[in-house]
Write a structure and sequence with these properties.
Elements: H1 2-10, H2 14-26, H3 30-36, E1 50-55, E2 60-65, H4 76-87, H5 108-125, H6 134-137, H7 139-148, H8 153-160, H9 165-169, H10 176-195
Antiparallel strand pairs: 1-2
Helix pairs in contact: 1-2, 1-5, 2-7, 3-5
């Protein structure tokens, strides 16, 4: 994540870097990030401590808190980038614009093709594996990271707004880390049981 974000910024695509972080943190699809995310969804006057995370595919959404109970930002880097973006959109509208102009990205198909084309350029320039895509660092990568971080299935489903575990399973890419963590937990429990 750090490599693709740094390279995107270096190559002049800071909005792509921010978009990748949104996908990672809020488990968002690229269409929801670049086509559906409005300035009004981020810290509106009526909810200045929240962001509306939309799931247009399922016609759902939820207000996510941006601060913990003590008022500390939960997403400091992402919030700094989104605060700067929103300042450029005083009248609202689409949050993401083209990096080379203030125009909104055009039609859905063209925009998503552009995101993938530019992402591939950034991935290769960063020296990352060529089979990676924007979503490797977005919804897919964030879901896998959230799962290996110990979120329960229920927490993960709520965070990603999945209606079933079957739908969620598509986004989980378990690797050795998850398997190692599972076995270490089992060994720890066995040792605890043996001491009793």
């Amino acid at each position: 994540m750090a490599a693709i974000r740094a390279k995107a910024i270096e190559l002049g695509y800071p909005s792509l870097a921010t978009g990748a972080l949104i996908g990672w943190e809020w488990l968002q699809r690229k269409a929801h990030i670049f086509i559906r995310f409005m300035a009004e969804h981020y810290r509106p006057e009526s909810r200045p401590h929240h962001v509306y995370v939309i799931n247009y595919k399922t016609s759902t959404g939820s207000w996510e808190p941006l601060f913990d109970k003590k008022g500390k930002p939960l997403y400091p880097l992402l919030m700094a980038e989104l605060d700067a973006m929103k300042a450029l959109r005083p009248t609202g509208g689409l949050m993401f614009r083209r990096d080379c102009s203030s125009l909104p990205r055009s039609g859905k198909g063209e925009m998503l093709t552009q995101v993938e084309r530019i992402s591939k350029k950034i991935i290769l320039a960063a020296g990352l594996r060529p089979e990676l895509t924007f979503m490797s660092f977005g919804r897919h990568g964030g879901t896998t990271e959230a799962s290996t971080s110990g979120l329960t299935e229920t927490q993960l489903m709520k965070k990603g707004q999945w209606s079933s575990t079957k739908a969620m399973a598509h986004y989980l890419h378990h690797d050795d880390e998850a398997k190692l963590d599972a076995q270490i937990k089992r060994i720890k429990r066995r040792k605890q049981a043996a001491r009793k």
